[in-house]
Amino acid sequence: MGQGKLKVTKESETGRNIEFQNTGNNEKLTAQELICRLETGNSVYNQSYYIKHQGDEKYIVSKPDGKIKNNLG
Length: 73
Fold this sequence. Notes:
By secondary structure, the protein is mostly beta strands. It contains one helix and five strands; from the N terminus they run E-E-E-H-E-E.
């Protein structure tokens, strides 16, 4: 599998990120697929992203590195 860096390819009407693409191997993932991979704990994406819980919702969040340009978006 390619490097675990993602870009957002689709947002909902409310601005929630719902589809992603791996910039290394062009693999496309839905938010739910990515959440499932992150929950396993052994995905290449665990190095750069984690799941934030807000109420009953789960959100994909990039791990902070101090660089604003590296935020998902």
